[in-house]
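Example for tutorial group B:
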């Protein structure tokens, strides 16, 4: 009995194992069939995409085969150069030149030497201010015009264009999207600004003497400011003359001496005794072109409109000559 029951158990175990193996095989076949079905669906969708691509390609071919008149072409816009205004370009060059002035030690030497020379002349020459016995700044107006013509203006203008030519940056500057007139005006305004700084520092003398910390008397400030405006117009003319000579040469030394001799000579014409003795139109003509005779009304506190027109006319003429000198380099 024991052996028969053992055999029956063994046969039942074998049949159960066979059924489990058949179920596993069926499950694997179902999984494989399911995977094959998903792959076929993907292939069909790929075929559809390829069909869509073919249809798109055919459309592009149709567009390509259309005549140009049937294609809606948008009008082409001209490419405009985004260039700043002339005023902005001039101001940019002016700032660049002012930065170069204030980074140069020559600027501080000239300003310091001018202030010391004015102080010595004002306070010590022939007894100085104390021998005048009246509250006036006439002695300062006797010294400053000659100092501006002889030293200050030539030193501040000798490098404006000469230095650009010497180092070769003038070619780079004139090939940039900047006009020659903007270059000339930018350099002119920068040089005139640095000379104006020199004149502004001169105002410290009467302020210290008649306002604070000392109060030596009541100064006629109206006449004083008229005299300072005359110095400004004289500086504007001299700066234009210096810029003109700087546009002619690459040498700063030549530009300095040409400016100094021209300004000093024109200023000294009004002080020559031979010129003062001339009668008629020769004497009037020489007196008219003299910087000293044009400045004299301002030194007395008189605002002369004819002198203003003279100063402005000479400045404009020199700037035009400098502009043509710079423009000529493009054709040489």
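The residue assignment follows.
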């Amino acid at each position: 009995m024991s052996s028969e029951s053992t055999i029956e158990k063994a046969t039942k175990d074998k049949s159960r194992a066979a059924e489990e193996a058949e179920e596993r095989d069926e499950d694997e076949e179902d999984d494989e069939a399911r995977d094959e079905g998903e792959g076929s669906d993907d292939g069909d969708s790929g075929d559809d995409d390829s069909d869509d691509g073919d249809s798109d390609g055919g459309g592009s071919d149709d567009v390509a085969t259309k005549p140009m008149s049937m294609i809606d072409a948008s009008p082409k816009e001209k490419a405009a150069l985004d260039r700043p205004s002339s005023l902005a370009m001039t101001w940019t060059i002016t700032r660049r030149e002012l930065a170069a002035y204030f980074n140069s030690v020559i600027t501080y030497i000239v300003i310091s030497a001018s202030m010391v020379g004015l102080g010595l002349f004002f306070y010590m020459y022939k007894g100085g201010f104390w021998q005048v016995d009246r509250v006036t700044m006439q002695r300062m107006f006797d010294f400053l015009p000659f100092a501006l013509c002889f030293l200050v203006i030539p030193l501040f203008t000798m490098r404006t264009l000469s230095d650009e030519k010497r180092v070769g940056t003038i070619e780079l500057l004139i090939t940039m999207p900047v006009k020659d007139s903007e270059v000339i005006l930018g350099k002119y305004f920068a040089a005139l600004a640095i000379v104006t700084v020199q004149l502004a520092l001169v105002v410290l003398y009467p302020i210290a003497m008649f306002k604070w910390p000392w109060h030596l008397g009541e100064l006629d400030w109206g006449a004083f400011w008229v005299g300072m405006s005359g110095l400004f117009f004289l500086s504007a003319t001299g700066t234009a003359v210096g810029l003109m000579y700087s546009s002619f040469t690459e040498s700063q030394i030549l530009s300095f001496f040409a400016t100094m001799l021209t300004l000093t000579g024109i200023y000294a014409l009004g002080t020559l005794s031979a010129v003062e003795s001339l009668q008629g139109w020769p004497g009037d003509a020489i007196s008219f072109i003299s910087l000293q005779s044009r400045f004299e009304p301002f030194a007395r506190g008189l605002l002369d409109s004819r002198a203003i027109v003279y100063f402005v006319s000479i400045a404009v003429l020199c700037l035009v000559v400098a502009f043509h000198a710079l423009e000529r380099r493009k054709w040489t």
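The chain has a mean pLDDT of 77. Compare this with the pattern of hydrophobic and polar residues in the output above.
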